[in-house]
# Entry
Amino acid sequence: MSLLQEEREIILGNEYVDDFDFAEVSEFVTNASKDLFISHHFSQKSKMLVQPRGGFPTYAQQYALYESFVDANVDVLPLTVDSNTRLNDYGTAKKMLRLSEENEMDMLNGYPLVTHGYRTTRKMITHFNKPVSLRHGTPDARLLIETAIASGIFEIEGGPITYLLPYSKNFPLDKALLYWKYVERVCADYSRLNLPINRESFGPLTATLVPPAITIVIQLLEMLLSLEEGVKSFSVSFAQQGSMNQDIVTGAVLRKLAKHYAAEIDCADAAIHLVYHQWMGAFPSNQDYAEQLINLSTVIASMVGADKIITKTREEATGIPTREANAKTVADTQYCLGILNGLPTIVDEQEEEILTLEVQAVMEAVFNDPADTLWRKVFNSIKNGTIDVPFSPHIINKNDMITIRDANKNIRIIERGNVPIPDRSYDYERAQCDLSKDTTGIVNDIIHDIGIMQ
Amino acid sequence: MKVVTGVVGNDIHVVANRLIDLSLQARGYDVCNLGVNTHLEEFFDAAVETGAEVLLISSLNGEAEGWSREVKLLKANYKTLDDLVMMIGGNLVVGSGNSEDIVARYKNYGFDLVCHQVDLNTGLDLLAAFLEERSQ
# Structure
């Protein structure tokens, strides 16, 4: 038995798992409908795929949510997991699910997938016969991913960096990297049985003034960590940043460099997709304004040429959205996409060059780290601040980079910290900003720049 | 002057914490930032270790209420913290409440300076004035 299989048997021997049947799961994946694979929809693509977010505690609620989404002409269904399951606290998830079922009151902020188990969940997924995307935020997602694939969920979001640095203060990064290696291998192995399982990175990170260079570097590294384990379908992603031009430039550079670096490790045969998140920062509480913002995001996603868009709702400012509000966004976004015709092509060569230089310099610094494997190079690069994510709560993050918006609302790096931004790009970025202010003025600008859409 | 700061409780709201750090540094303080998700014992331990004169706790959405009730009890276990200036700021209650009542309540919990929904720079001006007055 391989070491991986030994580890899988330990993980699936968890007391909260009801008798995991490896052979039966492999047979299910081998014979699963092509429609369940988002990789199939990407390759047949005639339009941008629309995917909302959403997860409720009980089976009945999740089923009803999917019915509403299907009525709204959804392309990809979401399965958002509750926070207890995210933190591997399956005991609490189980208790809270029972309370939710018995009292008709939501005691969980998502669908406790491990607690429901794959036999139950698979019934729902195969009934709707649409691709489902797993949304979680888990540093140790081993059990969750096994349960998801066994349920018929063939797109797995996340990664060791993007699901850790925005969400955790002290979960060890090296452990997260190794736990995700397991996830990549399991996805790669199942991909050999039928169509590829798609992996998607979480580009929005902290959604707070993250400059495109940092977003792109992390997208590329998670892609490489995944492809080197044998994954054949991968989505890089980013969220609306606040300037349409910067989004278009980011999309172009990300797409170009993803192809380039995949080919560098002899993985040019892997399919790479681009995903765009509607605005992930603080939303206006005025619901009409929120819809305007969502609509604008859809227009920009089209300008960017995204393969998939992930939606928000008019209730974003107030908490977890209702089923109705969530379905409404799907219908609205589909309508908007349908009438967006004859879009112009915009190319900003100067901005693309500046950004490309930044990304290449940081990638080179990561590759030049003396460690022997990519995951160790990545670990060292985050630890020494070669990669620095603004507003990450994690203790390993350097927090020396400072960013603000320029007059056109582009996110600019005004303090690079230990990130090897080349002088030419750094001078250009700083030249776009008013640097005459003192720190108090800059802090006030940062507060304003974070709340730009409110 | 040394300041220990951080976000109390199981709270991961990092933005204000980062801005407090930057603003304190800009005003010339020597900052020890414990970051988000910090328990009271960690604050007091850090104050002892760094010899800080000010402890500035921040909080959003009411986490502080439950934790603050134990401030006096825990602080009494430390022998060298009697002169530590205790400050708390942010959104200090769940839901809404009368600001005067909230300030009085938190002073009773053992804080010298209480800033409920006060602008960051106004709060730091209050701290400067408090320190100035105390040194006279």
